[in-house]
Amino acid sequence: MNQPRPAVRRFVERAVRAELARGNGGQESAVAQQLIARLYRDLAQLLGRLAFDALLERSLMLARCAHPILERVCASPRGMLMGLDAPSLDGPVLREGAVAIVCQFVELLVVLVGEDLVVILLHDLWPIATEQDQE
C-alpha cells in the first residue's frame, strides 16, 4: 500500500485547489497543513484524538518513503505537522511531499472504513472536491 489509489489523489488535488481558491494560504505545503487541520477538526471527535494522531503519523511515514524531503517533518498531537514551514524546505518537491501526506491519510481512512463512508465524511469538508468524482 505505498501509493494511494488514483481517486484519492484526484480528490486531494481538488481539495488543495479549493483551499487555494479560498485564499487561506500562499504555498501548497501550508495548504496541506490546513487540510489536515480541517480533517482533525471534523474527524478527531469521530475517530478519537489518539486514533487521528496515529493515522497522521502513519500517513507521514508512508509519504516519507516516496518523498525523502519529509525526513524532518513530524506529526505532533492535535493533527499538526511540524517542519513543513521550514525556510530550507520549499518548492515543488515539498509541495508533492505535503500533498502525499494528505493522500496517504485519506487512503488509510478508505482502507479502514471504506470508500463510501469516507466520501460521505469528506463531502461536508470539501463538497466540490467530492462532487466532481461522482460525475
General description of the model:
It is a single chain. With 135 residues, this protein is mainly α. It has one domain (6-129). The protein has six helices and two strands. The protein has helices at 6-22, 28-47, 49-66, 92-113, 115-123, 127-134, and strands at residues 74-76, 80-82. It has a two-stranded antiparallel ribbon. Strand 1 (74-76) and strand 2 form a beta hairpin. Helix 1 crosses helix 2 and helix 2 (28-47) packs parallel to helix 4 (92-113). It is globular and about 40 Å long. The protein starts with 5 loop residues before the first helix and ends with a helix. The model has no long low-confidence stretch (mean pLDDT 85).
Keywords:
135 residues, mainly alpha, two-stranded antiparallel ribbon, 6 helices, globular
